[in-house]
Write a structure and sequence with these properties.
Blueprint lengths: L1 H4 L3 H21 L20 E11 L2 H4 L5 E12 L4 E9 L3 E13 L4 E18 L2 E21 L2 E19 L2 E3 L6 E15 L2 E12 L16 E11 L1
Antiparallel strand pairs: 1-2, 1-11, 2-3, 3-4, 4-5, 5-6, 6-7, 7-8, 7-9, 9-10, 10-11
Length: about 250
């Protein structure tokens, strides 16, 4: 895993500083823009047939499994929505770190409770794969995950959408190899929960941004696969996402 290959907390500080500057810049420039609502997470009927976003997601390794190392490693975040009817969206989402990657596909059933409040229920099936050399040993892994989810969206006004999302984390399959030797691990299917708070608002002219914080409480996280953490305990994994809606 990338976490195991890095050994400097300077990388973490650099990424944290970059994220704070980026969020401050968004906050300063977002107001006063006139743009049609655009979203990638808000559980609403899409204004167009397709919507997509591109940005970065930052995850910090917990000291509970990395001891003195505490590093943020970004992943390219690419998200696509396809309108499949007035009350359905199809959802495809990828995290790309080159040597470890995660992709999911799923659906959302949508329902408007009022002019300001929307809800959705959905499910995502995901696969992950990773490979890295640790102490001159080629290590690799792959797995199959599932994320049933519900979302509650609130339209504060025409330029601010707020979404709360809850997910169940299911781990159906995982396999690890060190060289040609398979490392035995029997995953628990129910691995934890995740909760996301997302804000979507204008950035510049017709461009919107999504800012999201995701808190995962899980006994397995795909980006930590190469640590071979085998404790039967849920650990907190934070994710911070900043993406532009294309």
């Amino acid at each position: 895993m990338v976490f195991a290959a890095l050994n400097s907390v300077q990388v973490e500080n650099m990424f944290k500083g970059g994220v704070l500057i980026f969020l401050w810049f968004i906050n300063v420039t977002a107001y006063g823009q006139n743009a049609l609502p655009q979203f990638i997470i808000f559980p609403g009927t899409m204004p167009s047939a397709w919507s997509s976003s591109l940005g970065l997601t930052f995850t910090t390794t917990p000291r509970a499994i990395t001891e003195e190392e505490h590093i943020s490693v970004p992943a390219i975040d690419f998200h696509v929505l396809k309108r499949a009817g007035e009350n359905f969206n199809l959802d495809a989402h990828a995290y790309i770190q080159v040597i470890q990657n995660h992709a999911s596909i799923g659906f959302r059933w949508l329902h408007a409770l009022s002019d300001k409040v929307n809800i959705s229920a959905g499910d995502d099936v995901a696969g992950w794969i990773g490979w890295i050399k640790i102490e001159n040993i080629n290590t690799r892994g792959h797995g199959l995950l599932n994320y049933p989810n519900v979302s509650l969206g609130y339209k504060v006004d025409e330029e601010l959408l707020v979404t709360l999302k809850a997910e169940v984390l299911l781990n159906f399959h995982q396999k690890f190899f060190a060289g040609e030797q398979e490392i035995e691990q029997n995953p628990q299917i129910y691995s934890g929960e995740a909760f996301t708070l997302a804000l979507e608002q204008p950035f510049f002219k017709d461009t919107w941004v999504t800012l999201a914080f995701r808190a995962m409480y899980s006994n397995f996280f795909w980006q930590a696969w190469s640590l071979f953490e085998n404790y039967d305990r849920n650990i907190f994994y934070p994710e911070l996402t900043a993406t532009f809606i294309l």
